[in-house]
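ok so I'm stuck.
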Amino acid sequence: VIGVTSAPAVNNKLYVQGSCAASMNTLVDGATVIPDFGTNNNFTLTLAGNRAIANPTNPTIGQSGTIYLVQDSTGSRTLTWGNTWRFQGNTAPTLSTSANSVDMLVYSVRTTANISAQLITNIG
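replied:
not stuck anymore, here's the structure
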């Protein structure tokens, strides 16, 4: 395992033999949650109330990842989304509502003003 804090850009294809993994960043719960896409691609958030996921900071075109959305022990928490998030049919998805349920949002940054996303509900 090689840890690199700063690396030059790769301008050609990059081939990886074996696995490649990114760490998981825990988002800070609050009324408005702002993911920083400059820090990671993968996030987890435990909802302790109804929340808003704002437009992320530092998105990079072509970036993709996941955000795990976990209901707390109360459940029935809801989310609203910033205007750069794009969902199928232009309709924001509905989260699973059971206590401790887990949903997974998969996203891809098409432009810095357009993040395509799909919610997979109740994954465990």
